[in-house]
Amino acid sequence: MAPKNPWQLERTENQIQGTVAKRKRHRDWGGAVLFLLVGLGGLAGGELGLLWPRFDIFAQFTIQFAIFAAAGVVGLFIPRLKGVGAGLVAVLLLCGYGLWPSTNFQTTESSLAAGEKRMKVAQFNLGGQRSSPDGIVGSLRAIKADVITLVETGLNGEAILADLKGDYPFQVNCFASVGCEMAIISKIPLANGKLIYAGQSVPLLKASLGAMYGDIVVVAAHTTRFPHLKAQFSQFRAIAQALEVDAEPLLLMGDFNATPQSRVLKTLAGQLGLTIATDLPSWPATYQLPQLAIDHILISSSVRTLSAETAGQSAGSDHLPIAIVLGVASHTK
Q1: Domain residues for 224?
Q2: How far apart are CA 85 and CA 301, in angstroms?
Q3: pLDDT for 21 beyond 80
Q4: Domain C-terminal end among 47, 76, 101
Q5: N or C: more exposed end of the chain, with fewer CB within 10 A?
């Protein structure tokens, strides 16, 4: 057999090296493109939730999909290791988003308008048996809110409320009803405290603040979570039907297991004429890097936000407490 031409051998070797380099480039680009496609696909899926409710689960993760898309775009401009770079950018952005509630920057508080009363409100899912009662009491005192709604109080609920009685003398709870673990505690007198049911199975705890605070009705709620979308939509419809009969302004607060970008929460707010005043991620707070804003404060049009939303300490709960300062039109002269 005649020996191969050296020139042919060199050309073959160059072709092999070129093919390997090309495959590496494709793999390099592929990682960044994958992040971009996953992000854009998730965002598109969330928009489809407006047509098909089952797609609303994608809207729950709008922030995360946006981060993936942004990381993919950045990765495309990184000279080498584009996929690894996109992954690092995604991790950094997700960590930054999770750390956002913990920054507690000093927020500027708007001045009260004539006839307005200042009121700070907060919502906290205590996480049932996971939380520390003493830690919870300390966390709630540190928030210095005027009105607080509590959900998932667990077996320690009565003890926690007893410890807070000196700070929050006005309290309403539903502990006597099986499976209901909610409370409203307040420095402002509460009236007409009662438990009602939206539909057959969604408990809502209500109390009124009186004329000095615009006759506002405070409602505490806790709804089921996704991916149980059918049950979630059903519960939200029932809540809207139960509360739309109220002529008084509403403060609807609780753990809704839905993010501000979700169709289900937007629909509830629209049906009741409320504004979603909160968007800080509050869960899961186990490692202090929450990713989903599912604890919310929804306000009527007669109520005005005076400050940005803030978060407190989880104290062992898997949720962060959230708080916001409001301006409420008084009905007294």
Answers
A1: 108-329
A2: 45
A3: no
A4: 101
A5: N
pLDDT digits (tens, 9 = 90+) for 221-262: 999 987 778 889 999 999 999 998 777 899 999 999 999 999
Predicted confidence at residue 108, as pLDDT, reads 83
List, in order, residues 6 or more apart from 241 with CB less than 8 Å away.
198, 199
DSSP class of 146: S
27: confidence class by pLDDT, cuts 50, 70, 90:
low
Confirm if 239 and 232 have CB atoms less than 8 A apart. Answer: no
What is the token pair recorded at 183?
Answer: 């409370």
Q: Which two tokens stand for residue 154?
A: 């667990």
Which CATH number fits the domain that encloses residue 167? Answer: 3.60.10.10
Give the 3-state secondary structure of residue 171: strand
89 domain-assigned: yes
* Nearest CA among 199, 210, 202, 200 for reference residue 174: 202
Q: Based on the structure, what is the number of domains in the chain?
A: 2
Look at 314 and 2; give whichever has higher pLDDT.
Answer: 314
